[in-house]
Hints:
Layout: H1 3-40, E1 45-50, E2 57-61, E3 66-69, E4 76-77, E5 82-83, E6 88-89, H2 90-98, E7 112-116, E8 121-127, H3 132-142, E9 147-153, H4 159-170, H5 174-184, H6 196-207, E10 215-218, E11 223-225, H7 230-238
Parallel strand pairs: 8-9
Antiparallel strand pairs: 1-2, 2-3, 3-4, 5-6, 7-9, 8-10, 10-11
Helix pairs in contact: 4-5
Amino acid sequence: MTLIAQATAARSxxxxxxxxxxxxxxxxxxxxxxxxxxxxxxPAVESVAxxxxxxxxxxxxxxxxxxxxxxxxxxxxxxxxxxxxxRRDVTEARMNQLSAIDFASLPLEHAVKQVKGKGSxxxxxxxxxxxxxCKRLAKDLAGMDDITIYTFLYPILSPDxxxxxxxxxxxxxxxxxxxxxxxxxxxxxxxxxxxxxxAQNVQLGQQLRISGTPTIFLADGTRIGGYLPAAExxxxxxxxxxx
Length: 243
């Protein structure tokens, strides 16, 4: 057999092996999906993928939850997996990837806008005016420069949250009303206007599965669920890569 013929045969064998492996992986993932849905008792699985660690399968549920299981779906792991070499929380990283959004699709006209310095760095936040961690975030943002902040009023904690959000939205200077409340505790004055934007923010947040505030989105679509100290937020902003 010539060298060309040998190389051709080797490539054919490699291709067949690759196809066979892909077929087995697909079959295994489908089996895991069936096993998980049999356990749950409903068609609740969004996707299944084999992971490169521990022979585990990543299972993403339709409610956004991420769990792990073995190839026979005999055990379920509900928690974080940590890479001991890098100390990286691979579950958190994967969840951030899964929950990322198209930042350009956000209706920024429905947000309270603040520009600090040049404003070249951009974030969007979903915040409830009565959220304690939102007030901590506001203090951190007050000390940051070169940032544009789009705050989507997202009243989900109480009827008073809705009232405050509506009054802030209807204020002549929305940014001033928002920061006056979260930074200085100055209750926004009663005001009346079309507050459909606030109601639409709540609908959008539900679509994005935002269950807590603050929720932060970076310009590349990365989601940060919960309060992040200023130093960590600065680090996250420095790592943003926009198209």
